[in-house]
Amino acid sequence: MLYSWKCDCGATLDEIEYRPWPNVPKCSCGCDMYRDYGGVALGNVPYARPVHATSLGINPCQIDEHRQLYPEVKLDSACRPVFENFKQQEAYLQKTGFEKLKW
């Protein structure tokens, strides 16, 4: 599968990856790159509404650990991670090891 990547510095990368969920490449500037979907780079563009990820909810006893490991990702009152943009959500999934399944 061909994956297109972009960086906030303007760099781009196209690569062939044979796994359903590719590793996020590092840019030459040292930043993590983010997926480019058909010319639409979804990096830091804010979502119209924050995404409350029900499937990634945690047990309340894990709140302190979550805050230490992922200080940039807030939790809502139901202990669900709240994502403000695509890049934040992708980074969280990469750090936690979760994969998005494609239908």
Task: Report on this structure.
This protein has 103 residues and is of the alpha+beta class. It folds into 2 domains: 1-41, no CATH class; 43-103, no CATH class. Helix content is 17%, strand content 29%. The protein has helices at 63-69, 86-96; strands spanning 2-6, 12-16, 34-37, 40-41, 46-52, 74-75, 81-85. The protein has a 4-stranded antiparallel β-sheet, with no helix packed on it. The chain has a 3-stranded antiparallel β-sheet with strand order 5-7-6. A hairpin with a 5-residue loop joins strand 6 and strand 7. It is elongated. The two termini are 15 Å apart. The mean pLDDT is 82.
Give a short synopsis of this structure.
This protein has 103 residues and is an alpha+beta fold. The chain is 17% helix and 29% strand.
Please describe the structure with a list of short key phrases separated by commas or semicolons.
four-stranded antiparallel beta sheet, three-stranded antiparallel beta sheet, alpha+beta, 103 residues, elongated, 2 domains, 7 strands
Number of helices: 2
**Largest sheet, order of strands side by side?**
2-1-3-4
Shape category: elongated
Give the averaged pLDDT, no decimals. Answer: 82
Major beta sheet summary: 4 strands, antiparallel
